[in-house]
Specification:
Helix content is about 20%, strand content about 10%. By secondary structure, it is an alpha+beta fold. It has a domain at about 80-100 and about 110-129. Strand 3 and strand 4 (about 120) form a beta hairpin. The longest helix is centred in the N-terminal third of the chain and has 22 residues, at about 5-25. The chain is flat. It starts with a helix and ends with a strand.
C-alpha cells in the first residue's frame, strides 16, 4: 500500500470515529455531513389532518425529528413601510421615525422626520434601503 493510500485511509477512519463519538454523545451540538455529493431529497406528502398539533414549548423540548402543526393567530400586519426601511445616506444606518409634536393641528403636508444615531438628530439625507 502506498503512503497516499494509508493517509487517506487514516483520514476516513478519523472522520468515522468522530461521527461515532458525536452520535454516542448525549448532548451533541450538531451532526454535520461535509460531503460534496449530490443527494436526492425526497418530499414526503403528509395528510395534515393526521399530524399532531403541538405548542412551541413542546417542540423546543423534543429530541426527535417529527412532523407537527403549530396553530397561531396573526395579531397585526405591518403595512406601513412595506419591505424596505429608511436609512441615512451619510452613515448608511437605519433611521428611527420621530413622533410629531402634538400641537392640536393636523397638517397634511408635514413630512415625517427620522432620527440618525450618528448625526444625533433629525436626518435630512434620507433614502430607502
Amino acid at each position: 500500500m502506498r503512503r497516499g493510500g494509508v493517509i487517506e485511509t487514516l483520514r476516513q477512519l478519523t472522520k468515522a470515529m468522530s461521527k461515532l463519538k458525536m452520535l454516542n454523545d448525549p448532548l451533541p451540538l450538531a451532526i454535520l455531513d461535509q460531503s460534496n455529493e449530490k443527494k436526492i431529497i425526497t418530499r414526503v406528502a403528509h395528510d395534515w389532518n393526521e399530524v399532531d398539533v403541538r405548542c412551541i414549548s413542546e417542540i423546543l423540548q423534543s429530541f426527535e425529528v417529527d412532523s407537527c402543526k403549530i396553530i397561531c393567530s396573526i395579531e397585526t400586519i405591518d403595512t406601513d413601510w412595506s419591505w424596505f426601511y429608511f436609512g441615512c445616506k451619510r452613515h448608511n444606518l437605519r433611521l428611527t421615525k420621530i413622533g410629531r409634536k402634538s400641537t392640536g393641528k393636523m397638517i397634511q403636508s408635514e413630512k415625517p422626520q427620522f432620527y440618525c444615531e450618528m448625526c444625533r438628530g433629525a436626518c435630512s439625507t434620507i433614502e430607502p434601503k
